[in-house]
UniProtKB/TrEMBL annotation:
It comes from the Bacteria. GO terms for cellular component: cytoplasm. It comes from Facklamia languida CCUG 37842. This is Farnesyl diphosphate synthase. Belongs to the FPP/GGPP synthase family.
Length: 292
């Protein structure tokens, strides 16, 4: 079984080779590369590759273009989220955001390029058959577009200064964050051609992981504020957004996080049983978002 660090090296090299080969004008390529290399954990592409490694390590190469496309979509969303009309953030991961580093118009266009190019990456992948490419593109449209991430982002922005129910918050974050995790694991299953029952289990895993991921992020914000009150200025609380701790309290949020992690772990066990394969590599992602 390969470690996440090994899969990341494979992914980073594939991304580097792709960016070296593209014909994108330099003034557009610079902000694209800047945001792609801003220190992200690559969780989504690594999940996809982890699924393929569990099915057959020889399949990893077949998933690289889709993994890069997924990171393109995620990166574009961060560029646009940071814009003045959205979250209006000057920093991301300790570095100037794209619109600060370059300018607002350039940042918007770099995000547009990443979004558009993502679908070309899948469509032009010669390692995948046409039917599979069509399915992957359709799945990614659902996850990232007007039924998924974009809809979730609009709902998030529209409900600033409003308290929402916990069910509403879960649905918002499912669309905004969870659907891309679901796509990541389902795409791995589809490329690996496992059965539909297993793909359904992967989808359930992605759902529970996505919920746990958001609860974890909300709790991290609270812990950061406790240790550094100045960090409140950049938190969702400062932007008047509902969070799991604001609706449930810290302790119940921790309990909910543990519950979602338990459900995700149960999906891994069911996958192992259903397929006869070993998907325990997914457990490392659960460990990365646990809080005692």
């Amino acid at each position: 079984m390969m470690r996440a660090s090994d899969l990341r090296r494979i992914f980073e090299e594939a991304l580097r080779q792709y960016l070296l080969a593209v014909q994108t004008p330099l003034e557009l390529l610079k902000p694209m590369v800047y945001s792609l290399n801003s220190g992200g954990k690559r969780l989504r592409p690594l999940m996809l590759l982890t699924i393929l490694e569990a099915i057959d390590p020889r399949l990893i190469d077949k998933g690289l273009a889709t993994a890069i496309a997924l990171e393109f979509i995620h990166t574009y969303s961060l560029i646009h989220d940071d814009l003045p009309a959205m979250d209006n953030d000057d920093l991301r991961r300790g570095q100037p955001t794209s619109h600060v580093k370059f300018n607002e118009a350039t940042a918007i266009l770099a995000g547009d390029a990443l979004l558009t190019d993502a679908f070309g990456l899948i469509a032009q992948d010669r390692q995948l058959d046409p039917a599979l490419k069509t399915q992957l593109i359709a799945d990614l449209v659902y996850a990232a577009g007007s039924t998924g991430m974009v809809a979730g982002q609009l709902d998030d922005v529209s409900h600033q200064d409003q308290s929402v129910s916990i069910d509403h918050l879960k649905q918002t974050h499912l669309m905004k964050t969870g659907y891309l995790f679901i796509f990541a694991v389902k795409a791995g299953g589809r490329i690996g051609k496992i059965n539909e029952k297993a793909i359904d289990l992967l989808s359930q895993f992605g759902h529970h992981f996505g919920t746990a991921y958001q609860i974890h992020n909300d709790l991290k914000d609270i812990l950061a504020i406790e240790s550094d009150p100045d960090s409140l200025l950049k938190s969702d609380e400062a932007n008047h957004k509902s969070t799991y701790p604001s609706l449930l309290g810290v302790q119940e949020s921790k309990d909910q996080l543990k519950h979602e992690l338990h459900l995700a772990a149960s999906c891994i066990q069911a996958l192992n049983h259903q397929t006869g394969l070993n998907f325990s590599g997914l457990e490392q992602f659960l460990g990365a978002i646990s809080i005692e």
